[in-house]
């Protein structure tokens, strides 16, 4: 029996944070907007399409963003508002399918193979979803429609903003060959540069490489690259996907060298993470502290234990032990972050004294 081809939609809101700000403040419409803070040590969290035309992107230092776009308007982030709007959007999704896999506040995969609304095609379903989102939130979304998740995600970016694109089974493999590998999910900037050095710049270049060649150069990722070069992705839309981590980080207004100030920053980030964990009753067994120095050198320290961290004090203790393994420091510290991962079922015995396993990563 031939398996029924899946019908997958990837919905991605257009410049979500910035679009919410432009929606709520008409004076911002048509202007280059960055969500973030304009101070010297600030970072852009999101940018409107008007700002992107000047090369302003998320994670760009604010001072660089202002050099590229002197008329850039900064607005502080309002994450509570973004979460509320995200809930509205996910309520729309739920009218069309139960198979929803959120990726973030502003994007998700939907499996509409069952056609619960009787709209006949995934294309018409995607149009209806986008129309509902616009009507109920005043925001536009783009959508990609295809027979697997990899292609649907690629397709949603193809007609941005406020558009949709479909990749059918008869066009998928050939279409992938025409695309730059830098657009592929799972190929970040470092990997894309490595591929470029290996003369792999397009999907066709990637497809031409043998699995053995890819294993030699990319290890455990080789099979994924080998498959997506052929437009293949068997991953189902998983509505029960477990979040793998929760983290928070901050960039200081000036470089810190005093241990007490650095530790205070780490504890504040730990509190942010703990609030998320406690609210969702999601507790992890691994705590990671991240440090970025003034010279932008980055290092992490990680601690794991056999039971989950189920109290704020335990998280504080683990985070402090990790940061203290890097103190004192002569180099200024620019940024610190704390992440909890390796989520597990809550166990009755909490770990107050945690066996330490430290892993360093530059």
TrEMBL record:
<dbReference type="InterPro" id="IPR001126">
    <property type="entry name" value="UmuC"/>
</dbReference>
<dbReference type="GO" id="GO:0042276">
    <property type="term" value="P:error-prone translesion synthesis"/>
</dbReference>
<dbReference type="Pfam" id="PF00817">
    <property type="entry name" value="IMS"/>
</dbReference>
<dbReference type="GO" id="GO:0009432">
    <property type="term" value="P:SOS response"/>
</dbReference>
<keyword id="KW-0515">Mutator protein</keyword>
<keyword id="KW-0548">Nucleotidyltransferase</keyword>
<dbReference type="Pfam" id="PF11799">
    <property type="entry name" value="IMS_C"/>
</dbReference>
<keyword id="KW-0460">Magnesium</keyword>
<feature type="domain" description="UmuC">
    <location>
        <begin position="8"/>
        <end position="188"/>
    </location>
</feature>
<keyword id="KW-0238">DNA-binding</keyword>
<dbReference type="GO" id="GO:0006281">
    <property type="term" value="P:DNA repair"/>
</dbReference>
<dbReference type="InterPro" id="IPR043128">
    <property type="entry name" value="Rev_trsase/Diguanyl_cyclase"/>
</dbReference>
<dbReference type="InterPro" id="IPR036775">
    <property type="entry name" value="DNA_pol_Y-fam_lit_finger_sf"/>
</dbReference>
<keyword id="KW-0963">Cytoplasm</keyword>
<dbReference type="InterPro" id="IPR050116">
    <property type="entry name" value="DNA_polymerase-Y"/>
</dbReference>
<feature type="active site">
    <location>
        <position position="107"/>
    </location>
</feature>
<keyword id="KW-0227">DNA damage</keyword>
<keyword id="KW-0479">Metal-binding</keyword>
<comment type="similarity">
    <text>Belongs to the DNA polymerase type-Y family.</text>
</comment>
<keyword id="KW-0234">DNA repair</keyword>
<feature type="binding site">
    <location>
        <position position="12"/>
    </location>
    <ligand>
        <name>Mg(2+)</name>
    </ligand>
</feature>
<dbReference type="InterPro" id="IPR022880">
    <property type="entry name" value="DNApol_IV"/>
</dbReference>
<dbReference type="GO" id="GO:0003887">
    <property type="term" value="F:DNA-directed DNA polymerase activity"/>
</dbReference>
<comment type="subunit">
    <text>Monomer.</text>
</comment>
<dbReference type="GO" id="GO:0003684">
    <property type="term" value="F:damaged DNA binding"/>
</dbReference>
<protein>
    <recommendedName>
        <fullName>DNA polymerase IV</fullName>
        <ecNumber>2.7.7.7</ecNumber>
    </recommendedName>
</protein>
<keyword id="KW-0239">DNA-directed DNA polymerase</keyword>
<dbReference type="Pfam" id="PF11798">
    <property type="entry name" value="IMS_HHH"/>
</dbReference>
<dbReference type="InterPro" id="IPR043502">
    <property type="entry name" value="DNA/RNA_pol_sf"/>
</dbReference>
<dbReference type="InterPro" id="IPR024728">
    <property type="entry name" value="PolY_HhH_motif"/>
</dbReference>
<dbReference type="GO" id="GO:0006261">
    <property type="term" value="P:DNA-templated DNA replication"/>
</dbReference>
<dbReference type="InterPro" id="IPR017961">
    <property type="entry name" value="DNA_pol_Y-fam_little_finger"/>
</dbReference>
<keyword id="KW-0808">Transferase</keyword>
<keyword id="KW-0235">DNA replication</keyword>
<dbReference type="GO" id="GO:0005829">
    <property type="term" value="C:cytosol"/>
</dbReference>
<dbReference type="GO" id="GO:0000287">
    <property type="term" value="F:magnesium ion binding"/>
</dbReference>
<feature type="binding site">
    <location>
        <position position="106"/>
    </location>
    <ligand>
        <name>Mg(2+)</name>
    </ligand>
</feature>
<feature type="site" description="Substrate discrimination">
    <location>
        <position position="17"/>
    </location>
</feature>
<comment type="function">
    <text>Poorly processive, error-prone DNA polymerase involved in untargeted mutagenesis. Copies undamaged DNA at stalled replication forks, which arise in vivo from mismatched or misaligned primer ends. These misaligned primers can be extended by PolIV. Exhibits no 3'-5' exonuclease (proofreading) activity. May be involved in translesional synthesis, in conjunction with the beta clamp from PolIII.</text>
</comment>
């Amino acid at each position: 029996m031939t398996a029924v081809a899946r019908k997958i939609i990837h919905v991605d809101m257009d410049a979500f944070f910035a679009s919410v700000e432009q929606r709520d403040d008409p004076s911002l419409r048509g202007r280059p907007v960055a969500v973030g803070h304009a101070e010297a040590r600030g970072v852009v969290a999101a940018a409107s399409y008007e700002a992107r035309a000047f090369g302003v992107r998320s994670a760009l230092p604010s001072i660089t963003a202002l050099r590229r776009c002197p008329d850039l308007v900064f607005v502080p982030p309002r994450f509570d508002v973004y979460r509320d709007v995200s809930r509205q959007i996910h309520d729309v999704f739920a009218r069309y399918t139960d198979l929803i896999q959120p990726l973030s506040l502003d994007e998700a995969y939907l499996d509409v193979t069952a056609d619960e609304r009787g709209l006949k095609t995934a294309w018409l379903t995607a149009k209806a979803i986008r129309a509902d989102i616009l009507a109920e939130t005043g925001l536009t979304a783009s959508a990609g429609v295809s027979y697997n998740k990899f292609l649907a995600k690629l397709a949603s970016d193809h007609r941005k903003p406020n558009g949709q694109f479909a990749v059918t089974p008869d066009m998928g493999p050939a279409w992938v060959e025409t695309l730059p590998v830098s657009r592929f999910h799972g190929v970040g900037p470092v990997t894309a540069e490595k591929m470029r050095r290996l003369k792999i710049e397009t999907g066709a270049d990637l497809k031409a490489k043998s699995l053995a060649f890819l294993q030699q150069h990319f290890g455990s990722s080789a099979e994924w690259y080998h498959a997506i070069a052929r437009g293949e992705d068997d991953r189902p839309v998983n509505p029960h996907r477990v979040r793998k981590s929760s983290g928070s980080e901050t960039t200081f207004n000036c470089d810190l060298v005093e241990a007490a100030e650095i530790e205070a920053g780490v504890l504040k980030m730990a509190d942010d993470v703990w609030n998320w964990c406690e609210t969702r009753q999601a507790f992890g067994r691994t705590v990671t502290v991240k440090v970025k120095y003034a010279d932008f050198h980055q290092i992490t320290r990680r601690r794991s234990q056999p039971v989950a961290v189920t109290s704020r004090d335990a998280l504080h203790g683990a985070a402090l032990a990790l940061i203290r393994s890097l103190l004192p420091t002569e180099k200024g510290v620019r940024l610190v972050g704390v992440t909890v991962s390796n989520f597990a079922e809550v166990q009755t015995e909490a770990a107050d004294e945690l066996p330490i396993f430290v892993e360093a990563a530059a």
